[in-house]
Design brief:
CATH class of one domain: Alpha Beta
Largest sheet: 6 strands, mixed
Structural class: alpha/beta
Helix content: 40-55%
Low-confidence stretches: none
Number of helices: 22
CATH topology of one domain: Rossmann fold
Shape: globular
Strand content: 15-25%
Strand order of the largest sheet: 4-5-15-10-11-14
Distance between the termini: 43 Å
């Protein structure tokens, strides 16, 4: 079955997966979604006998139907190799009543590695399939983790340039140093005076600037994105939900057909949406529990049917979730209104002009069948890190702790005893100050790398190579700009 892709804002045109991957975002500003959902064509029992690469092929072949078997296997083999420090790629730990899916064993110690390790290869194959002769310019906004993972994935890739914008002062010290020390002639990192939403809006505005895109094309460039707005980022994330199920089945933790829940720390909604896509292809997913930090725009939506970004933006200890405009939520809204692009357009227009929109009762019912929201305050996050450490010795990063705290509330409120996987999105070594302070109760003032060693001593966890590599690395990117000067930074980098 061929799967084609349409824009959430105009579903009259259909394009191939490879075209959607190279474009990143549709010309009308919408996001690409499959025109129908395929179904797994092997049994769950057969899936449970496969390793991560095998599951990746079985899932991705369903969505990327214009890739040959050889092309897709080439991309998978290149992505999931020795850059991961675990043979399993995504090991799972059972801690205090839940399974923790550890997605931070890649080269930048965050879950973004799972998709950004493969995206450069998917993009190279896609560009060739679509006869794209121009250099591809990857334009990316990051709330902390996507930036480094994208930079690491695309650095040195011939025919590609990458520019990453991040909120200056809105990411952890380790996250920032990972980005600003990135080597490569084809990479540029820019801090903006604003928050992640400002960076994301700026990137979307550049994509939508038709005159600028024409200017770029004449100079031999085309834009694409490494954010989860790119379908080539989203589909590889579906894999680890399928693999989680296969792993639990293989290890006798569940019976074939049993439902499992997932709790996902959520910012831009791409990670948890991948879980929904897994459900749509036949993975027995029960509830997708959307865990928010104090920027709880999604939690409030689940409670009220109103998405309202008109609120204060709060800087938290889980910065990758400090987001008020969850881009991927548009994909779910589109699906919830029966793929009515006109209705979706109306709602996105309201979001842009009024900062809010309200969905119909039918749409809310559709969403509530699969999703439920929860949120954790900063105090709850800190307490959860300490409690889990004191009880088990296991160390949670701040984002995973949001999910863990939300799961504790969910269990108390619902008494639901379904086997549950908490999606663990980052190594605690990316957020040592907050993690260490939570565990020992001290307001640490030391340098972040001093704290890295203290956390190592306390926890017995080895310091990841990704952290040791940047200890004394030279700062190569120190540009900071106003949020309305992002286009000028792009022009300067491309010598336009």
């Amino acid at each position: 079955m061929d799967i084609l892709y349409t824009s959430t804002r105009d579903n009259s045109k259909k394009v191939t997966a490879s075209y959607a991957i190279t474009k990143g975002i549709a010309d009308d500003g919408g996001l690409f979604v499959p025109d129908k959902f395929p179904s797994l064509d092997i049994s769950l029992e057969e899936l449970s006998k496969l390793d991560y690469k095998g599951v990746a092929y079985e899932v991705m072949k369903l969505f990327f139907t214009d890739f040959t078997k050889e092309e897709l296997q080439y991309c998978i083999d290149k992505a999931y190799d020795s850059k991961f420090d675990s043979k399993e790629i995504v090991p799972m730990s059972y801690v205090d009543g839940a399974f923790y899916l550890e997605l931070f064993h890649g080269s930048t110690i965050a879950f973004k590695d799972m998709a950004l390790s493969i995206l450069p290869y998917l993009m190279k194959v896609s560009a060739k399939k679509n006869n794209i002769n121009e250099d591809i310019v990857i334009l990316t906004a990051t709330s902390g983790d996507t930036g480094k993972a994208a930079l690491a994935g695309f650095a040195g890739v011939e025919g590609v340039k990458i520019i990453v914008f991040y909120p200056k002062g809105g990411v952890s010290a380790i996250q920032e140093k990972q980005m600003v020390t990135q080597v490569g002639d084809n990479v540029k990192v820019v801090g903006i005076k604003g928050n992640f939403d400002d960076a994301q809006t700026g990137v979307k505005n550049i994509f939508a600037d038709k005159a600028f895109n024409e200017e770029l094309k004449k100079a031999g460039y085309v834009f694409s994105s490494a954010n989860s707005i790119n379908i080539g980022r989203l589909i590889p994330q579906v894999v680890y939900y399928a693999y989680s199920y296969a792993n639990l089945l293989a290890n006798g933790k569940i019976e074939e057909g049993d439902l499992i829940n997932f709790v996902v720390p959520t910012g831009n909604f791409g990670n948890i949406l991948a879980g929904y896509f897994a459900k749509c292809i036949g993975i027995p997913v029960g509830k997708l529990i959307c865990a928010s930090n104090e920027n709880k725009v999604l939690y409030d939506f689940f409670e009220s049917s109103v998405y309202d970004k008109n609120r204060d933006f709060i800087l938290t200890t889980s910065p990758s979730m400090d987001i008020l405009i969850s881009s991927n939520f548009e994909r779910l809204i589109y699906l919830s209104c029966g793929c009515d692009s006109k209705k979706n357009n109306e709602l996105m227009k309201d979001l842009k002009e009024k900062g809010s929109y309200e969905v119909t009762s039918e749409m809310k019912k559709f969403i509530d069948e699969s999703f439920i929201g929860g949120f954790a305050s900063e105090e709850m996050v800190s307490k959860r890190i300490k409690n889990v450490y004191d009880k088990t010795g296991y160390v949670l990063d701040t984002h995973t702790a949001v999910a863990s705290a939300v799961y504790e509330q969910y269990k108390d409120n619902t008494k639901d005893d379904t086997k549950t996987v908490i999606v663990s999105t980052a190594s605690p070594y990316k957020f040592t100050r907050a993690v260490l302070s939570s565990i020992d109760g001290i307001d640490h003032k030391e340098d972040d790398f001093v704290l890295v060693d203290k956390l190592c001593e306390l926890s017995g966890l080895s310091v990841p190579k990704a952290v040791n590599d940047i200890r004394d690395a030279k700062i190569l990117h120190d540009t900071v700009c106003e949020k309305d000067a992002m286009k000028e930074e792009v022009k300067e980098f491309l010598n336009l």
